Amino acid sequence: MTAQASTARTRYVDGAWHRLHPATPLLRGGIWLLAVLLYVGGNLREHLVTLVFGLPDVGGDPVDEIGRHDLVLPAALIVLGVILLSVGAFWLSWRASEFRIDGDDVTVRYGVLLRRTRTAKLDRIQGVRISRPLLARLVGAARVELDVAGQNANVRLEYLSNGAAEELRGDVLALASGHREAEAPEGEEPESVEAAVLTEPGTPVVTVTPGRAIGSVLLSETLVALVVIVAVVVPVLAGLGAGPAAAVSFVPVVIGSVTVLGRRIGRNLRFSVVSTRDGVRVSSGVVSTSTEAVPPGRVHALHIEQPLLWRPAGWWRVAVNRAGHAAGRRNAESERSLAPVATTAEVLTLLPLLVPDLEDQRDLLVAGLVGRGDEGDFTPAPRRARWLRPLAWRRTGFRLTDASVLARSGFLRRELVVVPDARMQSVSLRQGPLQRLLRVATVHPHVVSGPVRTTLRLVDADRAQRLFVELEEIGVGARRRDVSHRWRDLGTQR
Amino acid sequence: MTVLPPRALDAGLTGWRGVSPRLVWVEIAAVLMSAVGGAVVGAFLLLVVPVPWIGWTVLGIVAVLTVIRLVIAPRRVRAIGWILREDDLVVRRGILLSRLVAVPYGRMQLVDVNRGPVARLLGLAELRLVTAAATSDVTLPGLPEPEAAELRDALVARAEERRVGL
């Protein structure tokens, strides 16, 4: 690490505070300034014309009024004052914006009235982006953004001169990778894991049959709701003597729905999950087929749900939260569900592949999927919680296994959430007034954002407080043991 | 810095440290600011809408809410507590809706120190922790500036020691 670090130590990496590009405040407030100038300029245009060509004065215009009442001097002073004030404010704001890079972290501080200081560890930085908005380009400045995992967590250096930006990017990347190489465990190459998952031969886990692809869409809640609306609204309108008109107005709705449903069926048909030695491979897509690798360490939370209408058929939908997707937000469609429709048997095979801890836990999983009360050693919600969830309280419960947390809920729509201990970011415990009255609380293990909500509801208040502490201890302990996934495996998804 | 008494929902943890009582003034300023905003809306409605009771109702609601918020402001401030534990920082907030969050040092991605205009006059700062999970969102307002800087450095140092992947 020291070798890289020393070569990287240039102008900016000296632990001293550096100012940003002098035009920074102008560029940040640039749009407004430009707008004001254009507005004023537009208004003055006629006066310039008048001044040059000596056209007659029509009156009533503020600028003319000023001239007529000998207020030119005060007006000029006011304009000058405003300009001086804004220049002063810009100068103060520039003086207040500084950044510093030393061996381990980057610190940025800015703001005159609202002072903000942001410190990021160099080894947390996932990448460096340089962008040049139009105004900045005019003065040869660039915005440097240091990507850090987390919502709204980027460190922005606005603005630097082009040369400085490039130089800084080189330095930061060199420093970050220096840290990375020092930290990364021997022989572990996340990129190769992903590549292996994509190329290895595997055995199919989830294959969607045509019957299931069509049936799952036909039994979806949106379609049923649509049918009900049509079945109720059309006769009512017909009864009011507006039959043909109503029928016509429904045509576009029906055509649109059929298109959407058809696309969904198509996607389901093309869908498959294949298991390989290092993780599962998900293929989907109607027009262009996309294939994604999901190594088990990349799964931050799992959600298995069964809408009421799917219950007779025994179908489930599986969704996951993945770190790379939290940042990327591309292909939201495939992000939403890992498997759009799978049978119970397929789910029971798939889950252990995604969360290795659940291997040989068939009974537990079945209890989590369809059980209620304390089946499968789940800790059920206390009876008094029925006031908050009259139907779902019987199925609401949680269970801690050796390396993950299971949350079961939903009466009409069965749900099971799985959070691997090692992926928990933090834990919260919440209690509102009603919950306090019923002596229950909500425990929430936080994971990276995605379609899965990982809350444990209706937990007995005392148990919840113990659970909060337990989860925190488990989390810290599990993280100590888990060394296989350094942050840098995130970078491969970008 | 005060040591707070235990509460109903504190997960059995002890040694809660309170924030500066001066934070009350920041809260009051915020309440008054929003009261002014509400009053402007109410006055506008009173002037523009020909039905006067609409404007008066809005003004009345604003007044009642403002009084309630001013009355509970000191309690809200007293409810904020934090503990710097071996492996994590625990923060608690709220009286009606209690919230307790524990962030392990190893999971922290960023530490922000923010100072609003009123807080700065009182020499206070707000600490904000960011993890990879958007739901974490831990803010700890009302720290005296030197203490905030100290805590920030301590947190950054511990994050460094216990760093783990996602």
TrEMBL record, chain A:
A matching Pfam family: bPH_2
Regions that span the bilayer: 26-44, 71-92, 217-238, 244-262
InterPro entries per UniProt: UCP026631 (IPR014529), YdbS-like_PH (IPR005182)
Key words, A-Z: Membrane, Transmembrane, Transmembrane helix
Segments forming domain YdbS-like PH: 94-169, 393-467
Protein name: Putative membrane protein
Organism, as annotated: Amnibacterium kyonggiense
From TrEMBL, chain B:
YdbS-like PH domain mapped to chain residues: 78-154
Annotated keywords: Membrane, Transmembrane, Transmembrane helix
Protein source organism: Amnibacterium kyonggiense
Transmembrane annotation, as ranges: 23-47, 53-72
PANTHER family found in the cross-reference section: TRANSMEMBRANE PROTEIN-RELATED (PTHR34473:SF3), UPF0699 TRANSMEMBRANE PROTEIN YDBS (PTHR34473)
Pfam families to which the protein is assigned, alphabetical: bPH_2 (PF03703)
Domain of life (superkingdom): Bacteria
InterPro entries associated with the record: YdbS-like_PH
Protein name as it appears in the record: YdbS-like PH domain-containing protein
